[in-house]
């Protein structure tokens, strides 16, 4: 019986090739989108889960009370890891790690920049990474040993063991390879190719509680409740720093949540990448539903061709369940063929998808989970798509079917209309999303940050320049070049200042007031290079040695300290007590997700990591050539590595750019699939009203009036879809925009534009069938009467 169903289903598909092709392609497109998003979501949710015992690993953040609000920092002070190891018995291992360092590695004549990190010896007590050779825990405890991955071992020591070999790091120190690790997978939050003992680069300022610049991880002992361990950490800051820091304490975030939950409000994780996982999952579901609805409407539109067949089947004794089984078989077969189309589309699109999303997704046909997903998809799509046509057509009376007339009730008509409304509600929703997200992205790209990021290059300081040797001479030589307008140095990129400090003090400060200001060291001409306006005072100057004990602040810092005229006032910070010599106009220190934080700048060019170079307009290529020549003169052992600051700024909004790309692509796709469904319903209506149209034409109706007659009902459905979609879109987009401290207002005109666009597209789609029906010869349509 089942085989017979599929034989008949195949014959019907081959008999109506064009109709079958539209169905298969429509469902194939929907399934391809769903499979792509399934692969992406699966990858996003798999981060760090490859680690053995990962459920016992936690990332340490710090909650602090700042201006009456709890703020959560992802960076921690240097001494925190030692205090946790000493005071918290529930912690089995703890480590602190620097942010990734892209340093020069040299082996013989081979040299290249490689990404790595400095970590304390507890690292391998937390991260049980696969080892290829050596003892990584023992090697990390030795300041003169280095741990590398298979990638570096194969690159620098091909066809030989890397253990015991010598590697020169940063063109300075020599290290012995003490262990080789397997390459880290792409879904690891921590990415590195070399690892060295933290002490190698440790400086005095890293040992203070007032500088938060490191990542801290812990592994709890088995069967430990994380909440209990976190509660034991509450008094840590008041013990080690000051009693006034009673509201500052570490919190533990599960390692498995680190990638997905990066946003914190009032001390609690509220979202992050998980929001995009949910958005994309919903988009995949909506696209698949739209494709299924498209199939239903097309099947119903063509049902008049099957009425006599079904009538004969019923007369000769076919039961309704057998007819339903027949239609379900056709639907599942169509779904099965659509999966083939979807797999081909995914294979073709995946390389581009990986490029856009920065992923390494693969379609592994050997994975049982993939085939299980495909089977569920085929059955789900087949049943959902075929249920309505099967129930609809099997319900007709055989006498009416043999006469060639359909006698469906108003309920079926209302259901078809509801499906069209649903399709276009989702389509209008996505169109509004395309417009609003696009505007927000334009706003992010064009907003005045309070500084000039255009024509600015940044160069990591390495070798002698990193150590401060000849750094000022190097900077002065650059400023003498014809194409370079200005140059400065900074601890962090000014668009993403990562350092925090609670060390700021001033006369009259409330002893119970906790501060957490952004801070960094800079060299001379910082405000000039970045074109940051000064509202009072002056910039640091190299010819004024006393500036090493002075500070620059922004307006937010002045407001925090309650100073209306801060210049000349004395504060205490990293360099000790010193005067404020200038007040900068507020500029954005990080992405527009965050409000502008109080900022204190310290004049210390020897503790900086980046050179910032402002080029003259239209002379970027010449400036790069001059930069390369001067850098080779002052730092010959290191190849010039430069980047554009505006490109780094774009990277701050990579997730939003991906959402923009996805919504644009899927919005267009949703409209296309919805129009196929509308096309099917228009065809169905035209077939049902063929004789009515013939009579109207005989009585003198014009083509225009008939087109208007057939179109108006559909346009009412699209108008209803707009009314439903607008509040839904407004709520969703308003919620999304709340992630940005600085955002556009939602323009009501965008909803009108989306509605008019949907109506226009729908009108074009319906008009094709309407005009076709209106110009048909009425003699043919009335011949049966």
What about the largest sheet? 13 strands, mixed
What oligomeric state do the depicted chains represent? single chain
Content of β-strand: 15-25%
Number of helices: 25
- Taking all Cα atoms into account, the compactness measure Rg is 33 Å
Q: What is the straight-line distance between the termini?
A: 39 Å
Number of strands: 26
The overall average pLDDT, rounded, is: 83
State the helical fraction. Answer: 40-55%
Low-confidence stretches: none
- Rough shape? elongated
Derived from helix and strand composition plus strand pairing, the structural class reads alpha+beta
Can you give a write-up of this model?
The strands form 4 sheets. Strands 1, 2, 3, 4, 12, 13, 18, 19, 20, 21, 22, 23 and 24 form a 13-stranded mixed beta sheet that branches. Strands 5-6-11-8-10-9 form a 6-stranded mixed β-barrel. A 4-stranded antiparallel beta sheet has the order 17-25-16-26. It has 25 helices and 26 strands. Strand 5 and strand 6 (110-119) form a beta hairpin. It has 785 residues and is of the alpha+beta class.
Brief synopsis:
With 785 residues, the protein is α+β, with helices and mostly antiparallel strands. It contains 25 helices and 26 strands.
Give short descriptive properties of this protein:
785 residues; alpha+beta; six-stranded mixed beta barrel; 26 strands; 49% helix; elongated
List the helices and strands and how they pair.
Layout: H1 2-15, H2 17-45, E1 57-66, E2 69-73, E3 76-77, H3 80-87, E4 91-97, E5 101-107, E6 110-119, H4 123-126, E7 131-134, H5 136-140, E8 145-149, H6 150-156, E9 166-169, E10 173-181, E11 194-197, E12 211-220, H7 226-232, H8 236-240, E13 249-254, E14 263-265, E15 268-271, H9 273-301, H10 307-315, H11 320-357, H12 368-394, H13 398-403, H14 410-446, E16 456-460, H15 463-466, H16 471-479, E17 484-490, E18 500-501, E19 517-522, H17 526-530, E20 534-537, E21 551-554, H18 555-560, E22 570-573, E23 576-584, E24 599-603, E25 610-615, H19 620-634, E26 643-644, H20 645-651, H21 654-688, H22 690-698, H23 703-737, H24 748-774, H25 778-782
Parallel strand pairs: 6-11, 8-10, 19-24, 21-23
Antiparallel strand pairs: 1-2, 1-12, 1-13, 3-12, 4-12, 5-6, 5-9, 7-10, 8-11, 9-10, 12-18, 14-15, 16-25, 16-26, 17-25, 18-19, 20-23, 21-24, 22-23
Helix pairs in contact: 1-11, 2-9, 2-11, 2-21, 9-12, 9-14, 9-21, 11-12, 14-21, 14-23, 14-24, 21-24, 23-24
């Amino acid at each position: 019986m089942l085989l017979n169903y599929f034989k008949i289903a195949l014959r019907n598909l081959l008999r109506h090739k064009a109709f079958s092709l539209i169905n298969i392609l429509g469902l194939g497109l929907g399934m391809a989108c769903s499979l792509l998003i399934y692969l992406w979501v699966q990858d996003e949710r798999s981060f760090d889960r490859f680690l053995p015992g990962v459920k016992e690993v936690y990332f340490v953040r710090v909650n602090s009370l700042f201006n009456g609000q709890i703020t959560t920092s992802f960076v921690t002070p240097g001494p925190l890891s030692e205090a946790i190891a000493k005071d918290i018995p529930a912690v089995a291992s703890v480590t602190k790690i620097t942010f990734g360092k892209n340093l020069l590695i040299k082996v013989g004549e081979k040299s290249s920049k490689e990404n790595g990190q400095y970590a304390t010896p507890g690292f391998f007590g937390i991260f049980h990474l696969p080892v290829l050779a050596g003892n990584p825990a023992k090697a990390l405890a030795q300041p003169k040993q280095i741990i590398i991955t298979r990638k570096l071992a194969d690159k620098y020591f091909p066809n030989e063991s890397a253990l015991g070999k010598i590697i020169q790091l940063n063109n300075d120190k020599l290290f012995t390879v003490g262990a080789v690790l397997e390459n880290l997978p792409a879904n690891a939050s921590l990415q590195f190719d070399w690892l060295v003992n933290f002490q190698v680069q440790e400086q005095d300022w890293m040992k203070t509680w007032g500088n938060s610049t490191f990542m801290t991880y812990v592994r709890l002992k088995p069967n430990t409740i994380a909440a209990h361990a976190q509660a034991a950490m509450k008094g840590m800051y008041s013990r080690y720093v000051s009693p006034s820091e009673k509201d500052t304490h570490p919190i533990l975030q599960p390692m498995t949540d680190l990638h997905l939950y990066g946003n914190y409000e009032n001390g609690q994780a509220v979202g992050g990448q998980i929001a995009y996982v949910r958005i994309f999952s919903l988009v995949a579901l909506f696209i698949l539903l739209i494709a299924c609805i498209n199939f239903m409407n097309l099947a119903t539109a063509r049902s008049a061709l099957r009425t006599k067949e079904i009538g004969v089947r019923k007369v000769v004794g076919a039961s309704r369940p057998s007819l339903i089984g027949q239609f379900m078989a056709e639907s599942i077969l169509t779904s099965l063929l659509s999966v083939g189309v979807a797999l081909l589309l995914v294979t073709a699109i995946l390389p581009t998808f990986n490029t856009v999303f920065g992923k390494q997704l693969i379609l592994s046909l050997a994975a049982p989970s993939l085939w299980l997903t495909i089977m569920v998809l085929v059955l789900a799509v087949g049943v959902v798509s075929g249920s309505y046509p099967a129930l609809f057509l099997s319900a007709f009376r055989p006498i009416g079917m043999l006469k060639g007339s359909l006698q469906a009730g108003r309920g079926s008509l209302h259901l078809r209309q509801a499906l069209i409304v649903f399709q276009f509600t989702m389509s209008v929703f996505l169109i509004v999303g395309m417009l609003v997200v696009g505007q927000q992205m334009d706003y992010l790209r064009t907003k005045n940050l309070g500084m000039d990021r255009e024509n600015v290059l940044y160069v990591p300081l390495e070798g002698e320049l990193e150590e401060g040797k000849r750094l000022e001479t190097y900077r002065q030589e650059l400023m003498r070049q014809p194409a370079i307008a200005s140059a400065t140095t900074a601890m962090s990129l000014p668009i993403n200042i990562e350092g925090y400090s609670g060390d700021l003090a001033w006369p009259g400060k409330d002893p119970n007031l906790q501060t957490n200001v952004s801070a960094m060291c800079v060299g001379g001409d910082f405000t000039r290079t970045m074109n940051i306006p000064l509202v009072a005072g002056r910039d640091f100057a190299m010819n004024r040695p006393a500036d090493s004990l002075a500070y620059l602040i922004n307006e937010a810092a002045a407001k925090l300290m309650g100073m209306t005229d801060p210049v000349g006032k004395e504060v205490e910070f990293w360099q000790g007590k010193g005067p404020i010599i200038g007040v900068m106009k507020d500029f954005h220190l990080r992405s527009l997700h965050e409000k502008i934080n109080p900022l204190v700048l310290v004049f210390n060019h020897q503790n900086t990591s980046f050179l910032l170079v402002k080029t003259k307009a239209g002379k970027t290529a010449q400036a790069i050539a001059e930069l390369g020549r001067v850098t080779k003169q002052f730092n010959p052992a290191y190849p010039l590595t430069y980047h554009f600051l505006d490109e780094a700024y774009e990277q701050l909004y990579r997730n939003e750019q991906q959402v923009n790309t996805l919504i644009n692509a899927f919005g267009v796709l949703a409209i296309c699939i919805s129009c196929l469904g509308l096309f099917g319903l228009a065809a169905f209506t035209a077939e049902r009203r063929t004789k009515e149209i013939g009579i109207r034409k005989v009585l003198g109706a014009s083509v225009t009036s008939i087109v208007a007659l057939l179109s108006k009902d559909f346009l009412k459905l699209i108008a209803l879809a707009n009314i439903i979609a607008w509040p839904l879109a407004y709520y969703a987009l308003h919620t999304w925009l709340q992630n940005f401290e600085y955002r556009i207002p939602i323009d009501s005109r965008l909803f009108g534009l989306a509605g008019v666009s949907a109506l226009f597209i729908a009108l074009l789609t319906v008009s094709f069938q309407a005009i076709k029906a209106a110009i048909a010869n009425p003699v043919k349509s009335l011949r049966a009467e």
